[in-house]
Amino acid sequence: MARLTCNACNKELVDESDQKLHYKSEWHRYNLKRKVAGVPGVTEALFLARQSALAEEKNKLSETPMLYSCGLCDKGYRNSKSHAQHLKSRSHIMRASQQTGHSDEGNAIIKPLLCRVMNKPPQQREQDNEESDEWEEVDPEEDLVGEATDSLTHLNVNEQASNDDMDDDDDVKYGSELDPSCCFICDLEHDTVESCMVHMHK
Q: Could you tell me if residue 46 is left (phi over 0), alpha (psi between -120 and 50 degrees) or otherwise beta?
């Protein structure tokens, strides 16, 4: 009888029950994902080492963080290595020498770091929610016509430009008047200036 093998994990299997157990294992699933990604599979020993490293990392994150502080310098550190380095620093040694009778052990304070609790946003009153859910219907045409009318009242279309604004070098002569009811883009003529402005805005 031919032996069963797993192509993803490169493992020989004894029988069908061993094959079923292997296919349900995390190692096999991990190697299948790697195979789909085009990356070669890993051995079972390497997989177990990675799993234990991830579990150890997760345990470190779930532990209560400690705050290491120096009472003499009023400084706090989140790990013991930084705190130990501070105790050996020149500035700490100078302060410790200035204050006689204090030892380094008396100045070191180690306590759990309190987790910050995020403030919850205040509860909104139901009245505010009801008011914010209501929408006022606005006709977009009316708003555009109002804006166009306001802009046209401040615009002097039919006034002749002064000679100072014109370049004397231009050989091309333009029309003396600009029709405000004619679209600049497609030359479509409108009945009113407002409708022309709405048309050009669209």
A: alpha
17 and 32 both lie in a single domain: yes
Give the C-alpha separation, 152 to 156, whole Å.
8
Domain of 53 in residue numbering reads as 4-62
Residue 2 CA, distance from chain mean position: 55
Task: Give ∠ CA 129-130-135 in degrees, rounded to 5.
Answer: 105
pLDDT in tens, 101-119: 555 455 677 666 665 545 5
Q: Which residues contact 193 (CB under 8 A, 6 or more apart)?
A: 148, 152, 180, 181
Nearest CA to 71 out of 32, 41, 47, 102 is that of 102
- What pTM was computed for the model? 0.35
The structural domain count of the chain equals 2
